[in-house]
Design a protein that fits this description.
single chain, alpha/beta, Rossmann fold, 2 domains, five-stranded parallel β-sheet
Amino acid sequence: MDRPLVITEDHELLDDLLRIAAAAGAELDVAHVPAHARPRWNRAPLVVVGGDMADALAATGPPPRHRVFLVTQERDDPDTWRKCVAVGAQAVLELPAAERRLVDEFADVAEPPAGPAAVVCVVGGRGGAGASVLAGSLALAASRRRLRTLLVDADPLGGGLDLVLGQEEADGARWSDLVAREGRVSCTALQAALPTFAGLTLLSFHRGEVEPIPAEAMRSVLEAGRRGFDLVVVDLPRHLDQAAAEALGRATTTLLVVPADVRGVLAAAQVLTGLRAHTGDVRAVVRGGVLKDDVVTGSLGVPHGGSVPDQPGLAAALDRGDVPPLGRRSPLGRFCSEFLHELLKEDA
């Protein structure tokens, strides 16, 4: 694959460009004189021309092409726009102000566009509804189908999806390492930084005091997930914060886990009010109880997303640190298989 081409002899500028490219997960080809750039001029997916090389490059008469940028560290230089026109650049990017724009440009060519992944949000209708277990089970089931799957723990008070999956000791980044991120995140770099097991990539919290997830960090992670994975599953808190709103705004569908009893339905109705302010497709997943599924969904006014009967031994298995049992005959296994089948059919 051809790499972005940088044409400059300014070592300070080149150091900045190499750093910015690394943040985007991109590698660069570098030409220190225009003659060395000519063989790669048409092949490179993106060309960055340093202000120091603009006149020398223009003198060689390079053919017009798309995605050429003039990059400079000189602010308000009156000669900059003349140089921009001379090399046929589409824009002038002044550093450091334009760093985020340049990260996005490098990331666009480092990560070829792919169909956006489906995003499934899961939220409990009340405490103890089993939303985290369901989110983890869906992600595991998807990874076993060889879907590239990102599981995002967005509930700071949920106890940790890494614990649900028996991965609390796994090496890799957690939310506290990412909360300061703004702008585009390379999906390749994200996957490399996070714990990955059995084909599943997990983003969860460190133990101890946790910080709220900034909306900008959630946006960056989910956009990277949509570009680099086939499925993104997000476990949300019942009390929606700004990060949860970001996730809901990108959700393909949202599963509201509702225990089939009066208290469960009343609590879920309160959660549903918040969900509807941010997303359109909400489906009720009914957990075994005294009420019938149609009574639960009719009371809430949402479609039926499926049923998950109580599964004997599930709580004990999770306490032992076992992953959720997803055999084809288990209630969880049947639900996950049927849900993923329908989701992938809808997404096709």
